[in-house]
Write a structure and sequence with these properties.
single chain, 133 residues, alpha+beta, seven-stranded antiparallel beta sheet, 32% strand, globular
Amino acid sequence: MDGTRRWLLGIAATSALCGAANAAPGAIPNWTGLPAYPNLSRAAMDEVYRTEALGRWCARFTASTTDSLRSVEDWYRKTLSRASETDLAHDERFKIYPTLTGIKLALGIDYVALYRIPNQPTIIELHRCSWNR
């Protein structure tokens, strides 16, 4: 399966996460070690590491909140003050979604993607990665 198709399936899974009935977000383990936003509506932790386009293996925690994207971005900017920031409009993985807005905060090879699609909750993805295997 190519990277674009995998990414589209990931977005579909994220959309399903936003509408699915999950356990309370606090009951979902976050194995990434990256900070989870404190006001989550839904959350899910991938059961296995997944390979990304660059060949890295990453654990992914995905969550949603009804809080504004700006509030979530501000919280993560403060919490991850040493992270480098990229506008998702300039990130190859997200360019195929013209209505998506958000940022990516990177700490080395680990990163947090924060975004919103119109009329959807704010999505938070925490990625803890390891070098190529």
